[in-house]
Design a protein that fits this description.
Layout (H helix, E strand, L loop, with lengths): L6 H19 L3 H10 L9 H9 L2 H11 L2 H13 L2 H18 L1 H14 L3 H18 L4 H6 L6 H17 L4 H9 L7 H17 L1 H13 L5 H10 L4 H14 L13
Helix pairs in contact: 1-2, 1-4, 1-5, 1-6, 5-6, 5-7, 6-7, 6-8, 7-8, 7-10, 8-10, 10-12, 11-12, 11-13, 12-13, 13-14, 13-15, 14-15
């Protein structure tokens, strides 16, 4: 898909176009340099209407080919737009990675999404990286799934949050990967930090809405691997947040296979 045509190329062009506009608004040097390259002779690059004409022109296709040959400038532009802009510009930066650069320079983009997540300062910004950059990057490059899973072991909380958000958003469109996402999320389920436990609980809730059977069975299997029964108690806590069918299925599995570890009091939904 990296070198698709038609709608794929249109998506790439629009993503890079929005990134350039954001960079120009912020006065980023790389954006101005790219505009000079794209503008035909005699165009007033200081006129807003002329800038729109340049960026709407077929010359943006030239930009796509130049990025394929050397993405370094655009990768730096993304980081500058993210660090200097507000919410609108940050969305444009993340979107440009997920819908543009991930198809033109996939391996470099994988490193870039980690950098953006590390630069996040709030949960909302980390989730933006997950939704706008990581999920579409996985759409374009499914073999990167295991690489993104590794982000869950990072020490920085916003990188973990971005990874979980991206994995869940990707699975929402590719249900067959639900089991893999569950395996990744449950790697964190033994952690005691409140932030991580809350993040895992939310991810399991969203995954249970996608595939309730797979979610219930994955949690039950995870719990069953702990002979002390500690995981079974945690699983009951997770159950309260799950979709109704998943909650009932998990209770059934826990009671059937782990009754000696937990009391049989039904978990009440919220």
């Amino acid at each position: 898909m990296a070198r698709g045509s038609g709608n794929g190329s249109d998506d790439i062009a629009e993503a890079l176009r929005a990134l350039l506009r954001a960079g120009l608004d912020l006065g980023v040097t790389e954006a101005a340099r790219r505009l000079v390259q794209l503008a035909p002779p005699g165009i007033n690059r200081g006129d807003a209407m002329e800038v729109d004409r340049i960026l709407d022109a077929e010359r943006v296709r030239e930009l796509i080919e130049s990025v394929r040959a050397d993405p370094s400038g655009l990768l730096q532009l993304v980081k500058e737009v993210w660090s200097r802009g507000g919410s609108k510009e940050r969305k444009a930066a993340a979107h440009a990675v997920g819908h543009g650069l991930s198809r033109l320079a996939p391996h470099r983009s994988l490193g870039l999404v980690r950098e953006l997540a590390a630069m996040a300062t709030t949960p909302k910004e980390a989730e933006l990286v997950g939704e706008e950059a990581i999920a579409p990057l996985l759409e374009a490059n499914p073999p990167f799934f295991d690489r993104v899973k590794q982000f869950l072991q990072e020490n920085q909380p916003w990188i973990r949050r971005a990874a979980i958000t991206g994995l869940v958003a990707y699975v929402a469109r590719r249900r067959k990967f639900t089991a893999l996402a569950l395996e990744a999320v449950l790697l964190l389920a033994d952690r005691h930090e409140a932030e991580i436990r809350s993040l895992v609980k939310q991810a399991l809730k969203e995954l249970s809405a996608i595939d309730w059977k797979a979610t219930a069975r994955a949690i039950a299997e995870w719990a069953k691997q702990d002979p002390t029964g500690g995981r079974a108690k945690i699983a009951k806590q997770f159950a309260a947040s799950l979709a109704a069918d998943a909650r009932q299925e998990l209770q059934r599995l826990l009671f059937a296979n782990l009754a000696r570890f937990v009391d049989a009091t039904p978990v009440r939904g919220r």
